[in-house]
Automatic annotation (TrEMBL):
Family matches, as Pfam families: NAD_binding_10
Gene3D superfamilies: NAD(P)-binding Rossmann-like Domain
Span of domain NAD(P)-binding: 11-196
Matching InterPro entries: NAD(P)-bd_dom, NAD(P)-bd_dom_sf, Polyketide_Oxido-like
Domain of life of the native organism: Bacteria
Name the record gives this protein: NAD(P)-dependent oxidoreductase
Transmembrane segments: none
SUPFAM superfamilies, per database record: NAD(P)-binding Rossmann-fold domains
């Protein structure tokens, strides 16, 4: 089997670095893209470039592109949508897969898919702006039948320094709890799920979610 070539965008972020480390460990050929002048990741190749400046030629030849972009400040929250739209425009009609590091707030809490987690009374107010911005980006992504996208939502409690257990539950559009009644996933286990999806997944034009087993 040919070595998979993947690009990871916003590569200096904590989730992106975990994805890169996991992919390199499995023998993937990884190119990291970020704004910083130095490579802060385990990727074999590095390109200093902002997502907004990427062209179709930059991403040509990759099997998959992982977008790990995330921002919290009010003035930059719209970039969740604008950068997703930019990536869709340059990958339109391409066989390259686009995988998005998503959020949990847009997961549905009912079978009818009418209410999201961020709309429930106990959802923290501090997280509503970023959850809303990421949800809008997902809504825009769903309109792109011309892109091989997959949106990967973590559990509600997304732990940067959580342990790498190597096990997770793969779910879909609905907010899912594990056997302990928890919605938790470490960045390391999320990275395993992301690389599994690149390696053998077939959730094209779908949102999937992961929670600690």
């Amino acid at each position: 089997m040919m070595t998979k070539k993947i690009a990871v965008l916003a590569a200096s972020g904590k989730v992106s670095r975990k994805v890169i480390t996991e992919a390199v460990k499995r023998g993937f050929d990884v190119t990291a893209f970020a704004r910083k002048p130095e490579n802060m990741t385990d990727a074999q190749h590095y390109v200093q470039k902002d997502i907004a400046d990427l062209t179709a030629d930059d991403l040509k030849g990759f099997d998959a592109v992982v977008n790990g972009f995330g921002t919290w400040s009010p003035e930059t929250l719209p970039q969740h949508s604008t950068l997703t739209e930019h990536l869709c425009s340059i990958l339109s009609g391409s066989p390259v897969r686009l995988l998005i590091v998503g959020g949990a707030g847009s997961l549905f809490v009912d079978k009818e898919h009418t209410t999201t987690l961020m709309e429930t009374p106990d959802f923290p107010d501090d997280y509503k702006p970023v959850a809303g911005a990421m949800g809008q980006a997902l809504t825009g992504l769903r309109r792109h039948d011309d892109v091989n996208w997959t949106y990967v939502s973590p559990a509600a409690d997304f732990r940067a320094d959580g342990e790498r257990t190597g096990k997770y539950i793969l779910a879909g559009e609905e907010f899912t709890l594990n056997g302990k009644g928890e919605s938790i996933i470490s960045y390391a286990d999320y990275a395993i799920a992301m690389v599994d999806e690149i390696e053998k997944g077939n959730h094209i034009k779908q949102r999937i979610s992961v929670v600690e087993a």
